[in-house]
Design goal:
By secondary structure, this protein is of the alpha/beta class. The chain folds into two domains: 1-102, Spore Coat Polysaccharide Biosynthesis Protein SpsA, Chain A (Alpha-Beta Complex); 106-228, Spore Coat Polysaccharide Biosynthesis Protein SpsA, Chain A (Alpha-Beta Complex). Helices cover 33% and strands 24% of the residues. The strands form two sheets. The protein has a nine-stranded mixed sheet, sandwiched between helices. 40% of the residues are buried.
C-alpha cells in the first residue's frame, strides 16, 4: 500500500513563535518530523506550508516542501490543497496527515495507522493510547477516543470503531480510557468530502474537527498503540522533547 504523507506546517504560533524551525539537537523541528515520517516507508513525504523560510529549510536538507495558501482554517484544509497540487489526478488513494509538531514520533505508529486502511470500509484511520495516570483522565486538553472493539484476529482487539471523541472524562464506569493521538490517515475520497462539509454542531462545541466526520456518518477506526508522542506547543514542551531526543541519540 502506497500513501502520500503530508506534514502541514505554519509559522504563526502564539505560544511558540517560529515553532517549525525551532532547533532540536541540531535540526529544525519540522525536519525531524519529516525524517521520522520518511522512516515509516509509506511513500512520498512532503511538507505543506505557507512559509518560504520553511520551504528553504527543508530544501537545504534535501527534502520536499510546497507552498500552500496562508488562509487555511486547519491543517486538514492545508493537506487537501497540497494533495491536489501534488496528485491532481487522484492516483494515490491514501493520504497520511502527520502533525508538524511531533518530532519524536515513532515511525512504527505511523505505519500502524496506515495499516487500518487495508479495510475498505474505513474512511479515516487514527491512533490512541491507553491512559495511565489520573491527570490525563481528567484533563480537558487530553482528548479521549471512545470506540467499540472490532473483532479482528490480526489486531487482537487493539482496533476500535470510533463512536465519539471528547474532552470530558469518558466513557463512565470501569475500564480503560484512551488518549487520542492526532495523526490521521484519509481515504482520498473521504478527505475531499470532509473539507467540503461545514463545521458541525458537536465539532464546534468540543473544538474537535474529527466530530464533523462522525456527524456526517463517516467511519473512523483507531488503533491502540503503546505511547503518545510528545507534541511541542510551549517552551516547556520544547525543552522536554530536546531532553528526550538528546538522551536517545
Amino acid at each position: 500500500m502506497t500513501a502520500l504523507v503530508l506534514i502541514p506546517a505554519r509559522m504563526a504560533s502564539t505560544r511558540l513563535p517560529d515553532k517549525p524551525l525551532a532547533d532540536i539537537c541540531g535540526l529544525p523541528m519540522i525536519e525531524r518530523v519529516r525524517r521520522q515520517a520518511a522512516k515509516a516507508d509509506l511513500g512520498r513525504v512532503v511538507i505543506a506550508t505557507d512559509s518560504t523560510a520553511i520551504c528553504e529549510a527543508i530544501a537545504g536538507f534535501g527534502g520536499e516542501a510546497i507552498m500552500t495558501r496562508s488562509d487555511h482554517p486547519s491543517g486538514t484544509d492545508r493537506i487537501h490543497e497540497a494533495a491536489a497540487q501534488i496528485d491532481p489526478g487522484g492516483a494515490t488513494d491514501i493520504i497520511v496527515n502527520v502533525q508538524g509538531d511531533l518530532p519524536d514520533i515513532d515511525p512504527a505508529i505511523i505505519r500502524t495507522a496506515a495499516d487500518l486502511m487495508r479495510d475498505p470500509t474505513i474512511d479515516i484511520g487514527t491512533l490512541a493510547a491507553e491512559i495511565a495516570d489520573d491527570y490525563e483522565r481528567n484533563a480537558p486538553n487530553v482528548v479521549k477516543a471512545i470506540g467499540s472493539p472490532v473483532d479482528d484476529r490480526e489486531t487482537a482487539s487493539k482496533r476500535f470503531r470510533a463512536l465519539y471523541f471528547t474532552r470530558a472524562t469518558a466513557p463512565y464506569g470501569d475500564g480503560p480510557l484512551y488518549h487520542h493521538i492526532g495523526l490521521y490517515v484519509y481515504r482520498r475520497s473521504a478527505l475531499d468530502r470532509f473539507v467540503a462539509l461545514p463545521p458541525s454542531p458537536l465539532e464546534k462545541r468540543e473544538g474537535l474537527e474529527q466530530l464533523r466526520a462522525l456527524e456526517a456518518g463517516m467511519r473512523i477506526d483507531f488503533a491502540v498503540v503503546d505511547t503518545v508522542p510528545l507534541g511541542v506547543d510551549t517552551p516547556e514542551s520544547l525543552d522536554r522533547v530536546r531532553e528526550r531526543i538528546a538522551a536517545g541519540e
